[in-house]
Amino acid sequence: MLNMLRMDLRRMFRAKMMFIAFLCLSVGILISIITLRTVTDPELRQQAIDAGVEITSDDQTDFNAIRSLTETQALCTTIYSGSFIFVALYIIVVLFVCNDYSSGFAKNIFSFYGGRWCYYVSKLLCMTIVCALWILGSFFIFRLCCIVCGMDFARSALTEYLRVFLEYLFIGVAFSAQGIFLSVWLRSEGGGIAAAIVLAGGIVPVMLEALLGNWGISIVYKTLYGSVQAVTENINSGSPVGGAMAVTAVWLAIWSALSLFALYKKDV
């Protein structure tokens, strides 16, 4: 399995898709910081108003409150709450796994190594490493953009960064397991990318929440997308996060079992 993991990591780091996706994430962080700088600076905000942007008194209050956020609160609210990083991670999983099947690499691997569970574990560990690097990289890019743009948020303790890192990484692992299952089952890059947008992006959970809300049923916090929102709310308001981690663990177990089922039951 370690040999397979080394091959996966070598292929991942030689490919451009991981770096292109992180570059897009970095650009998103920069745009977010520039936007926050614009709305929180009185002079720049007035220029925006003069240019025709409508800003209400409630907006003014919200903009003034942004300056009191800590670094982790600002990072989670602007970057992670929209789940963009997990959509990008999901797409990388889909492209990586589907390429194995389209190129014949999966067939060779299964013939050589035999145990398909090794293939799944290797892919999951590889994507866990990618997710960890992205999260750490987002911390660095966020801090760098804040310095360049003159956004001075209240400093967050190292333990706070560590907690954010571990919680979002755990959710990223669960999303990766889901992506592996759909990639193995569908073997379609288009279908997998669509799933990344509607599932990891929260479109399906939010739509179901709106539909079922008419009957008083809430399901969004029982999804991985809901876990992302729960972690963000925990960072901002201190709401409990244990339930979100439990939901993430359950989904990780489910998608892992389904991935192994698909690997053993579907022909290459």
Automatic annotation (TrEMBL):
Lineage: Bacteria, Bacillati, Bacillota, Clostridia, Lachnospirales
Protein name: ABC-2 family transporter protein
Organism: Eisenbergiella tayi
Swiss-Prot/TrEMBL keywords: Membrane, Transmembrane, Transmembrane helix
Regions crossing the membrane: 79-99, 120-153, 165-186, 193-221, 241-264
